[in-house]
Amino acid sequence: VGSRLPNLGVLGKAEYLSLEFTHPWISALPLQRIDGSILFWATTGVVSRLWAARGVHVPVFAPTGT
Fold first, then answer.
1. Would you say which domain of life the source belongs to (predicted)?
2. Which terminus in the chain has less CB density within 10 A, N or C?
């Protein structure tokens, strides 16, 4: 799974950031194709915070409480 995450961390996906802040579920739709865990993170809003802090990069070890 870790090898797939960088694929969605490209600049081309940066556009999803705008959607993520307003409508988390919008980004979750395409992202779930890469990893089901992404969908969970997006739903909980964790992805939003990680992307905002790490620049469109979602670490596999991301704790769902931080």
1. Eukaryota
2. C
CA distances from 26 to 3, 21, 22, 63 (A): 23, 10, 9, 22
pLDDT in tens, 6-52: 444 444 444 445 444 445 555 555 544 555 555 565 566 665 666 66
Residue 66 lies in a domain: no
Please give the residue range of the domain that contains residue 30: 5-54
pLDDT-derived band at 60, boundaries 50, 70, 90: low
Residue 64 maps to a domain: no
